[in-house]
Amino acid sequence: MLYIELAWRNLFRNTRRTLLTCLLISTGLAVLIFADGAIRGMEKLMIGSVTKTLQGEAQINRLGFRDNFDVDLYIENPTTILGKLTEDERLSAYSLRVLSGGMIGSAYNSAGGVIYGINPEQEKEVSRIRDAISEGNYLSGKSRELLIGTTLADLLEVKLGDRIVLTAANVDTNELTQDLFRISGIFEFGAREFDEGFVFVNLSAAQKLLGMEGGIHQIVLQFKDPKTSRDNLSLSYQDLEDKEIEITGWLGLQPSIGAMLEYTNLGTAIIGGILFILISLGVINSLFMSIYERIYEFGVIRAIGTSRFEIISLVLVEAFFLGLLSAFLGLIVGLLFSYYYSINGLPLGEMEVSGIMLGNGNLYTELAPYQVIFLPLYVILLTLITAIYPAFFASRIVPTRALQRAL
Amino acid sequence: MKVIETSNLSKHFGLGETRVSAVKNVSFEIEEGEFTAIIGPSGSGKTTLLHLIGGLDSPDEGDITLSGEKIAHMKGNQLSDFRRDHIGFIFQAYNLIPVLSAAENIEYIMMLQGIKKPERRRKVEEILETVGLTGLGDRRPAMLSGGQQQRVAVARAMVSKPDIILADEPTANLDSKTGMKLLEVMKELNREFKLTFVFSTHDEKIMNMATRLIHLRDGSIERDEQK
After folding, report:
1. Which residues in A137-294 belong to E strands, given as ranges?
2. Do B97 and A6 touch (CB under 8 A)?
3. How many domains does chain A have?
4. Does some domain include residue A340?
5. pLDDT tens, residue by residue, B171-188
6. Which H/E stretch holds residue A113?
7. Hey, which residues 190-209 in chain B have their CB within 8 Å of chain A?
8. Tens digit of pLDDT for each residue in B118-130?
9. Which of A350, A358, B111, B212 is the most exposed place for a label (fewest CB within 10 A)?
10. CATH value at residue B158
């Protein structure tokens, strides 16, 4: 106990120096907690924006469909797959889709685009289509309803209730087929690609248009735990897969996001590395100054019988207290900042990833238990590791030389 | 009973032309309960000899036997432990740990010896009374006078029940009156507990009080005088 008290009191021999070192280490930890929160927030924002907008967390498609969106590569009978999906407790929702390129025409103009056939009820759970409706209503299931993007509506000079003719190729005969729809809603995702190139109709209407009764092109999956879709899905759905079907998680669907996430992880590692250097230099400087100031005293306590191990322990306990104080201070400051921005958000401006607007333009930091437990422990451990060299230096002080130097 | 026995003790510093022999072929014996002063002019090798006897430095030649154990070739923890259990040190500049109270400074060495806290506290109270510092145990060194600090150093040196106490110019930083009082305390301890003291000093008061004077000149014993 006296030993611990001695180490604690030694820390406050030079209060200003200790506080400055504490400030350095705690600022480092606060920055680490905040940066980690911001990086995790950005990761969540990117994944959320990409997966929740339209793409989903994972997709089931016919093998090769995603390469060219060939309409004839469709799943003729999804019953077996749907049976498996219903049994999967990890899933929170799924939605069936038909999609095809086609001509979208009004009385005044026409444009090429992508026709999505969706199940309105299922789709609510896996995408933001319903939330993106800016005028009119979401699909109710009536056969001739159509949702159109704001930019495309302007181009075609149409408004709610106007007629739209969709022209596409029959999946089996490749013959052109047409059907008439009425605009029931206008959506605005904020992403150019979506707002000027996509229309949504009911699944059955799209199936009828393309001549694929009961068939689908895509099943979009949403999991209870979003991390599930990062895992190797093809393994977990192995019995579903055959040569005809592929299951792809969002990392596979958007490899660019995966690369960005790797960069964010690299960012955390770089910040951690810089902090390591800063903290190391601060701690080494502080401890060496403290040891040099007490060199005579170390000589005396060595002379009266303190072993090298006890000297090492004394310096390490001092470093531990320094790390503990700094970690406590840094934790409070870091958490306060991170908490504030987790509520109020950091303004990002209009930032897009893969053509998708990131959230509402704000980045919300993410608080996580490991930031409270592991990051402070990392800092304490770092302080201790850095203190090893000064501790060994102190233990090697030769009493006679120390006594002579001081005299 | 012999507490210290040195034979042909030599210690050199530097190499070649700059080589200096701080201690040369020094041999003497000190019996238990002696109050010995090693005296001589500056540079005569007093402090080096004291460091060699105390196991703070190792001789280049010769042997030292302390309480029956040869210490010249002891190293590392063995030597630290030996110093802790057999030798008490008093330095010129008091050298108390400034962040510990007087009582804690005395307690420190007992903590190194692994003595339990209640026992340590009891001994500290006893020894504070012995050196005339009753009631001052809670004070930090900065709140004590030079004489009081040196008394704490004496208490720290003797609390581990060493076989010998080595004191390097213990009165050098004290005024003559305080120095005299401190010497009286040490003499009393020498008489009452048969504690063996070896001083390195210029101080005439110590020389007058010592029962034996070892005169050093240029690292060698010039005269060994029993009083």
Report:
1. 145-149, 163-169, 176-187, 198-202, 218-223, 245-249
2. yes
3. 2
4. yes
5. 888 888 888 888 888 898
6. strand A110-118
7. none
8. 999 999 999 898 8
9. A350
10. 3.40.50.300
